[in-house]
Amino acid sequence: MKKILISILVVLVLATAYLLFLLRDAGAFRTINERPLEIILQIDLFGPEDFEISYADSFAIISSTERKKYPPEEEEFGNLYFLDLKQEQKKNPVNLTKHLPFKFSPHGLSLFKLDSTYLISVINHANNTHSVESFELFKRDSLVHRKTLTDSSMVAPNDIVQSSPTTFYFTNDKFHSGGIGQFLESFVGIGYSNVIYFDGKDYRIVGDGIAFANGINIHRDNNLLLVGSSRGFNIHVFSIQESGDLVEKEIVQMPMGVDNIAMDSHSNIWISGHPNLLVYQEYCQRKIPISPSEVVKLSFKGEKMEQQSIFVDNGDVISGSTTACPFGDLLLIGSALDNKLVLLKKQNM
Description:
Low-confidence stretches: 17-22
Shape: globular
Strand content: over 45%
Number of strands: 24
Helix content: 10-25%
Largest sheet: 4 strands, antiparallel
């Protein structure tokens, strides 16, 4: 009997230790030491989860969806907005998709400059399915839908990056939609999610084993693909091969659950995310009113990346930040569930 009791005690101690490890791994014990920035402007907009900036033409394209909670309990819809970043136009986002002839629930997007126009590729979750919608932007109020792409590989697409006019990568943030598999992915942090490459004709898995693959972007100076892992608190860095295949180069640890990844005009990398995933999960279910936000800047110094904490907020300025990128002396931050885009005064960095 004594041996049985000792065995049970050992199992309980090990289980408790593992549970504490998982909680720490999700940021549960992190203290939020705020790093505030001055608020310049707040633009009220439903769930501006993702945006990309054209530095050549001084505008942003914003993916906006009215989200009540996540995961959603009913179908949600939204639009793409054009935001002129010149001083006199900052308050007036222009709805580009209000006359679309199909249902639209945008998520991650990619902005790719062509000769005189822009290609916009957007993850769409409408009609209880997934697709990539391809648009061409001619001017601030002229958006033309070009095509809809679907494939069985779009299991749970989250974000997308165009690598050429005809090719792109996207992330599936999970593999399982329920049961023990979803538990292992979401809570234990086992990496089942992946990266898919579309070569213009076919889709194939080029990266996997990532714990909740979220934001994705290309560092074009170094020919690297960056994939954020929300559950892993890290960024997977891949070298892009001529074939489009990926070779993992390194994994960069981050202080938060990584959401979207943005690039500025100087090829610096801007990461937005969630310092405490357990609090963020409660916020996504609308059980609590706010959730912390964090923005980190990554810069290449030779072969190495340097991290710099830019903004940390307990959720009062913006909750659950999902995308951040600078423009001039401003830092723009969006969120999937906080219905606003905030423009903060960027400090010298």
